[in-house]
Write a structure and sequence with these properties.
Helix content is 8%, strand content 58%. With 320 residues, the protein is mostly beta strands.
């Protein structure tokens, strides 16, 4: 009876002590080291002080001055008299008929005259353009940074490009950071459309046998450096701690270049009209008449007028 009582007491003690022994897991009880669960690493700070950002973007730019001037297809020469060389059959000075008519090569060369500006915009030579660029920024705090920006735009037949020093202020929250930016720099290149009067001659044996007049609209390159100012606003979204997407809109002011307006230039072409008379009774004799043709030509100036533009940019940012 005593053994049975002792046995029940031992079982009872074991039931009481066992949960306490295994409360910290079987590893502790078995003498093995306890496995410690590490907490999850904290989420990275998407926008940091002392941060370097590299942005690469494409751009769509549109001119502040859109449209075109209506320049009519006019012949700029007055009077429009060709220099001729004629052979005339006559009797006692009375003309019977003209045997031949031609135009000397030396007195009336091929003509190409600028008769007027066509594009209102003097940077793209059209209303809009595509392009792209890149910028590098250093943020000395989470909110402010300085940078260098390069931009290039596909103006008509002539590249327009420049660079700026920029200042950016941003307000990060979570993955987003709206920002404002401004900069000052330079721009070069671009073009303006002008209309030209053209006259081409076909020569045979030193004289003109065919004359063709036509008009073309051609770009005239602008190769003067102008100052460039920029203001804008945008939004950045960080996909990861080091990669983001950006979109913004900037307005760009072109200024600072000394303005030289288009000027009117008078073209003078002078020649001699020679007429050879073959008279049955008086023989052959020649008369000459001076001929002067004049035209007003537009000589393009250069400056910074009519070159402001807006620009929408979309790109990717790499942050380090």
């Amino acid at each position: 009876m005593k053994k049975l009582t002792l046995t029940f007491c031992a079982l009872f003690a074991l039931l009481v002590v066992a949960p306490a022994l295994y409360a910290d897991g079987p590893e502790k009880y078995s003498g093995k080291e306890k496995e410690v669960m590490q907490p999850a690493p904290p989420v990275c700070d998407f926008y940091r002080a002392h941060e370097w950002d590299l942005s690469i973007w494409g751009a769509y730019a549109f001119a502040a001055d859109t449209g075109q001037f209506n320049v009519p297809n006019d012949d700029p020469f007055f009077p429009d008299t060709d220099v001729t060389n004629e052979t005339v059959l006559s009797v006692f000075g009375t003309t019977l008929f003209v045997i031949s008519s031609s135009e000397p090569r030396n007195f009336n060369p091929n003509e190409r005259v600028n008769i007027g500006r066509v594009s209102k915009n003097q940077l793209f030579a059209r209303d809009d353009a595509w392009g792209g660029g890149a910028d590098i920024k250093y943020f000395w705090s989470r909110y402010f940074g300085v940078g260098i920006e390069g931009v290039g735009l596909a103006a008509k037949t002539n590249f327009a490009g420049g660079g700026l020093l920029t200042l950016t202020g941003r307000y990060p929250f979570g993955r987003f950071a709206p920002y404002v930016t401004g900069g000052i720099g330079f721009i070069d290149g671009g073009a303006t459309l002008y209309k030209f009067f053209n006259e081409k001659h076909t020569f045979l044996n030193g004289v003109v046998t065919n004359e063709r007049e036509f008009w073309t609209v051609d770009p005239v390159a602008n190769n003067h450096v102008r100052a460039l100012g920029q203001i804008g606003a945008g939004l950045e979204f960080r996909v990861t701690c080091h990669i983001g997407l950006m979109a913004d809109f900037t307005w760009n002011f072109v200024f600072g270049q000394e303005d030289h307006a288009d000027k009117i230039h008078l073209i003078t072409e002078q020649g001699i009209s020679t007429t050879t008379f073959q008279d049955i009774f008086l023989g052959t004799f020649t008369t000459t008449t001076p001929v002067v043709n004049q035209a007003f030509e537009l000589r393009p100036g250069h400056g910074s007028d009519n070159q402001d533009f807006g620009m929408a940019r979309f790109g990717v940012t790499f942050s380090y």
